[in-house]
Design goal:
This protein is α+β, with helices and mostly antiparallel strands. It has three helices and five strands.
Length: 139
């Protein structure tokens, strides 16, 4: 080996490149994000929790039939009075948006700003909505 010192060259390159990174990060602000306290804006196409609009729902049940995860249950109380019980199991949902696409009336949407689903048990993942009873029901 004619004057070539492999270890000195390799170690010198690593220490040199490491020193460059250390000196650069020493003078910059930390990259740590303060997530729970400072939240970033979510993209508008993010698929979060399901939202049901009872005013436009006709109770056809297509969302329940098309859901591959069986996360939606529609119970018809009175179709003429538009009384429905809508149950959404977020713990089963795969957020595929098949229910949103199959709804003919646009009653379902995925909220892009409600996506934080961490919990200690499954209780907060079951949402039960009831359409309000109309005041003028003819009997």
């Amino acid at each position: 080996m004619d004057g070539y010192n492999f270890m000195a060259e390799v170690c010198g390159m690593r220490i040199g490149s490491m020193w460059k990174d250390v000196s650069k990060s020493f003078f910059e602000r930390p990259v740590t994000e303060r997530y729970p306290f400072e939240r970033h804006a979510t993209p508008p196409r993010l698929r979060g929790l399901l939202h049901w609009d009872y005013t436009t729902c006709i109770g056809c049940g297509l969302c329940q039939k098309d859901c591959p995860a069986e996360a939606i249950e529609v119970e018809i109380v009175d179709r003429k009075a538009k009384l429905f019980n809508f149950t959404y199991h977020a713990d089963r949902c795969t957020f595929c948006a098949q229910c949103v696409q199959s709804c003919n009336k646009g009653s379902l949407s995925l909220l892009h700003d409600e996506w934080e689903l961490a919990a200690l048990n499954k209780t907060p993942f079951c949402f039960a909505w009831h359409s309000p009873e109309p005041e003028n029901i003819k009997e």
